[in-house]
Amino acid sequence: MDTVHSNEERLRDYLKRVTGDLQAARARVRELEEDTRDAVAVIGMGCRWPGGVSSPDDLWRLLTGDADGITAFPDNRGWDVAGLYDPTPGTPGRTHVRTGGFLHDADLFDAEFFGIDDAEATMMDPQQRLLLETGWEAVEDARIDPRTLRGSDTGVFLGMARQPYGDTVDAFPEDGIGHRMTGSITSVAAGRLSYTFGFEGPSTTLDAACASGLVALHLARQSLRNRDCSLALVGAATVMADAEIFLEYSRQDAMAPDGRCKSFSAAADGAGWADGVGVVLLERLSDAVRNGRRILAVVRGSAVNHDGASNGLTAPNGPSQQRMIRKALADARLSPTQIDLVEGHGTGTPLGDAIEANALLAAYGAERDRPLWLGSVKSHLGHPQAAAGMAGLMKVVLALRHGTLPPSRYADRPAETVERSPGALRLVARAAPWPETGQPRRAAVSAFGVSGTNVHTILEQAPEPTGTTPAAEPGDRAVPWVLSGRTPDALRDQARRLLADLAARPGRSVRDIGWSLALTRASFAHRAALLGGDRDALTAGLRAVADGRAAAEVVRSGTSGRRQIVFAFPEYGGAADRDAWAELVATLRDRSPGFSALYERCRTAAEASLADAADTEVDAQVTAYAAMAALANLWRSCGVRPAAVVGDGLGEIAAACAVGAVRPEDGARMAALRGSGGDPGAAAPAVAETDAASWYSAGQATELVLGTVPAGHWRSAPAGSEALEKAFAQWDGPLVIWFGAPGGTGFGVPGGKEIGLSGGTEAGASAEVPDRPGAAVVIPGARCGDAGDPLLPGLAMAFAYGASPDWRAAYDGIGGRAVSLPTYAFQRRSYWLGRDDREGPDAPEGHDDRDHHDNQHAAAAAPGPVSAS
Fold it and tell me: Pairing relation of β-strands 155-160 and 203-206?
């Protein structure tokens, strides 16, 4: 009987295990199925489009304004602009069109920023150069410091066709010939981004003609869903290195005489060609939500196919387009009636537009209860070829975010195919609110390659943010703003960009801006810290940085490179320090649990060792020691660690604690006995040996400390002595963090410049790094007496002098959220192979000629208006 019972028990246990394993397996299957169906979020964008467009905001202004991006041929690419033109189509070697959508600053590039020398930059296809800049901007637009992705599995997927950049050059510069191959082949474009940014995920460049950008997006979606990468940088680029496409299509008489695409319009008379670069950053939607990203839009589905053996290699094929659309809808698990807007390919050729419109009618249904809105970004920009799909994608993302149907130009007279559709297709002739349907806003984008490749992508409005609420204005708490640039000019330009951004978007919290500057932007050698206590003071400091002048509450580094960090702990200053320490402790106990915990441990240990805990002097010295120890520990927790420490008097005990030679509690007992006139040595039976740092005594250390600290670690030197001066000299201009009472006396660092300390530069004054080599800079470990946070100003000053604080830890307990900020202020110079220098001289650093060409739109040598048609 026992055997039977035992067997039944074993059987039940076995069945439980099997059932549990089965449930786990089913859960894993569901998880994998969700992974493969997981939508993808667009979280960042960077771009260059005709019309002076250098950001998504610029693109939206162009799309909703009265002008387009069509201008005369560029004069900085070595083209024989006058000799190329002949008004008669078909003239060999000539073009009857001399306008298009051009990036007139495509020759400009910040080579130094990316660590590329001038010789290599000159040999690089400008498409590669612009992809580097817009790739960086797309990551910054996602509110991510690009350097934090180094070593990650981020993938790069690019669409790009080879351009004949430099092909007609008779002789290459001798110092650049070695870069000819990597500068010109398309495969290097993606590899260069991965290499430069340190990405280790999939990396590929593809050429599917005008479908390239959206095909790259399709492959990136698959890679994300297969977990080949966690983020994907997806982009496409076209910069016409010569005028060959104009010559070929002029021979075919297939271009609009005014260079403008009149997409789906009765006025359509041919294509118009354009440059353009667009990059987006993608993340799995579930990860984006979990990571608290700002989601711009959601990619719900996509499909790619080919025309197959149709009626011609380059001829559009309507049935293939229909199949592609239905496949994309199935991938998105949506019905045709759930799509509100289609961003068509719409090149402006009557035959191609008619085939596309008929395919849309067939796939999306002629019996809709509401119209399918139709448009094409090419009516504003021209046809940017390999980047065409990326231009349409960005337009749709912006439209979904703004809840607005952006207009297509020339839509007042729809083409016959659109006109005779029974209300199913309707061109967007003027900007209008997105129709309310009770569902998320949804749109689709098409792109067709001349080789027969078709691609259709379906996007959806971003979900409402969950679990995030706007941070309140900090009010009485100052939050420093930190800026940096790779060069002094870049730092000034960065300040100018932020000033313009503040004027354009004035409602953001001071705290959120400070948090975002610290946590979402890379740090470079030239730095500034703005310490103003309110928005007006911070803005005034920003203007000073932009102008390159000194101002109150601005600390700016004048040299590159990091300084060794020294923690300095002074002697207790008596009654003069008592109130300052009490105020600081009261503030930091509320602000920082880490500070409060260590401070209370020290207080408890000291009180337990004293017979008379009510002695005011003893209590004050214990408070000072505990505050110094806890404050230094707080700096360490914020990522600032010393190479050495120095101490004087009571500060000697705090210094020993800071390097781990004395336990905080033992140090507190020593401070209590010292304050009561007793022997501090009785409180610390041993001082631990440590290799964490060297430390120095500025006064006569106790016999205990001198006798027990291992040789080579502690060196006694009277304050102001030659020995102490030599100690500081060996650190070659250290950054000294002074842990004295806020507003108290300085430490007397030999040759040092004190910032924000009494006896040195007054708190609130502008500060620059001393010009003389080896000069120390002394900054306070905490500031009180104003309405701001006591710790952040010191960390910001340390940042200005080369330290790398852990800002996330520093803002713990303060709060803040990521907000949009201007992207990096690239300092561009001109690079172009085969161009006579007289045609396009090097631009000075920071030069950008977009404004010049924006003002030349009306002067473009082309028939037709530039205002809205």
Answer: parallel
pLDDT greater than 50 at residue 826:
yes
* One-character DSSP codes across 678-735: S-GGGG-S------S-EEEESS---HHHHHHSPTTTEEE--TT-HHHHHHHHTTSS-E
Residue 28 — very low, low, confident or very high, per pLDDT cuts 50/70/90?
A: very low
Out of 96, 104, 218, 345, the active site residue is: 345
User: In which band, very low, low, confident or very high, does the pLDDT at 169 lie, cut at 50, 70 and 90?
Assistant: confident
Using a 10 angstrom Cβ sphere, with 0-12 exposed, 13-18 middle and 19 or more buried, the burial of residue 386 is buried
Give the whole-angstrom CA distance, residue 779 versus residue 803. Answer: 12
User: Domains in the chain, please, with CATH?
Assistant: 40-99+109-464+831-854 (3.40.47.10), 481-556 (3.30.70.3290), 565-785 (3.40.366)
- With beta carbons less than 8 A apart as the criterion, state whether 529 and 796 touch: yes
Q: What SS3 state is found at 170? A: coil
Q: Calculate what percentage of the chain has a pLDDT beyond 70.
A: 80
Per-position DSSP letters for 285-309, written without gaps between them: HHHHHHTTPPP-EEEEEEEEEE--S
- Known catalytic residue at 383: yes
345 is catalytic: yes
Q: CB under 8 Å to 137, separation ≥6 — which residues?
A: 46, 47, 55, 279, 823, 824
| Cα–Cα distance measured from residue 254 to residue 271, given in angstroms and rounded to the nearest whole number | 7
Residue in 104, 218, 380, 383 annotated catalytic:
383
From the list 47, 210, 602, 657, the catalytic residue is 210
Q: Is 210 in the active site?
A: yes
Instruction: Specify the pTM.
Output: 0.87
What integer pLDDT is reported at residue 735 of this predicted model?
87
Q: Report whether pLDDT(144) > 50.
A: yes
pLDDT at 686: 45
Please state, for a pLDDT cut of 90, what percent of the chain lies above it.
58
